[in-house]
Amino acid sequence: MKDEELKDEATNEQAEEATEAQETTEAQETTEAQDATEAQDATEAQDVTGATEGEEAAEDGKKLFKKKKKDKRDEQIEELTDRVKRQMAEFENFRKRTEKEKTQMFDMGAKTIVEKILPVIDNFERGFSTVEEADKDDAFVQGMDMVYKQLMTELTNAGVTPIEAVGKEFDPELHNAVMQVESEEFESGVVAQELQKGYMYKDQVVRHSMVAVVS
Hints:
By secondary structure, the protein is α+β, with helices and mostly antiparallel strands. It contains 2 helices and 6 strands.
């Protein structure tokens, strides 16, 4: 009787162990299934996140491309603007240079004409120096004097002026010393006598004054 009871108890223990093992196995399988589900959900989430980041990167790439394209267009505009400014500056320099050359050519021509007129003025002055005091009221003399004064007025209006000489310190840029003289009136190196009047056209010497300088 005792042997049978012992057998029954052993059988019951084995049954309980088998049941516990089965429950443990089922619990492990359930846990593994949950882990697999969570892993799949995480993978799907990563895929969604990756897709979103990819779309954002593509959008950023489009914006960057548009910006680069716009920048290139802006560079072309700046290059063309700079080129126009340079051409305008070159044209302005050319215009100024041309105006300066025209002015210089005009001045050279005017100076040449003045040089040819100066001997005429010299002849007028020499003629007046020979007129007697009693003949200065003569109509012919007065007529010549009017022509002389009109000629001098027009030359002055054109920029022709006589060079001051007598009483001025000798200046080789303006005066041409042809002789030295003694003088009690002027100091040494001062122009004492003007032998031929000199003239300037604007800031250029047309003819130097021919003078005598105190030694």
